[in-house]
Amino acid sequence: MFSFTLLSKMVERMVSLSVGIMLSTALLHALPEAFESGADTHKLFATLLGGLLAFFMLEKLAILRHSHHHEGDGHHHAHGHDAREAGKSGWMILIGDGMHNFTDGILIAAAFLANPELGIITGLAIIAHEIPQEIGDFIVLLNAGFSRRRAYIFNLLCSLMAVAGGLIGYYTLDQASGLIPYVLVFASSGFLYIAVSDLMPQMQRRATVRESVPQVLLIGVGVLLVVFLTGAH
């Protein structure tokens, strides 16, 4: 509700917060968790590379589709930010977030199977780091041209991937647990690509001191939020 009311009125400013949240979620939380799991390091880096290239191709397809849609329509289309062009980052964030939520569901299932108390603590810890992340995702969807209602519905559907992960994890945990590091790395590649390729270039277009100072401060706030909430558990 906080995102839906207050933050949605300041989308351009809040993009900076989203960048801080996504970069720190990927680099300080998800990737360390994946690499500390004991999975093969070379395979994890290969997954990261594959994920970055996959999101690049997804964006390329979105741009080609956009260009084809407007080809020969007789109108001049500016090279600056427009909602339809930015929409590609919205769909990419949904894919990355959905996969991240899926792994969270598996982790919660694993914790409950080990010990119900551990399951509750793990669930609360995941809720804590999901709150800033979902706020960041919501802002990215609004920035990509989604209406507030549509952004909320798609974010909600994405969150339900945690339920799917929990159910699959509960019934097939022996097989599913080995996939967690790779899914985390793939989801992280999406967060990194969107932040660096789509959101940061938008921020660089407004390169005045008056715009840059709030951008840097909000990135810092996003990082601190993730550090505080992930460190708390």
TrEMBL record:
<keyword id="KW-0472">Membrane</keyword>
<dbReference type="InterPro" id="IPR003689">
    <property type="entry name" value="ZIP"/>
</dbReference>
<feature type="transmembrane region" description="Helical">
    <location>
        <begin position="179"/>
        <end position="200"/>
    </location>
</feature>
<keyword id="KW-1133">Transmembrane helix</keyword>
<feature type="transmembrane region" description="Helical">
    <location>
        <begin position="42"/>
        <end position="58"/>
    </location>
</feature>
<feature type="transmembrane region" description="Helical">
    <location>
        <begin position="212"/>
        <end position="232"/>
    </location>
</feature>
<keyword id="KW-0812">Transmembrane</keyword>
<protein>
    <submittedName>
        <fullName>ZIP family metal transporter</fullName>
    </submittedName>
</protein>
<dbReference type="Pfam" id="PF02535">
    <property type="entry name" value="Zip"/>
</dbReference>
<feature type="transmembrane region" description="Helical">
    <location>
        <begin position="152"/>
        <end position="173"/>
    </location>
</feature>
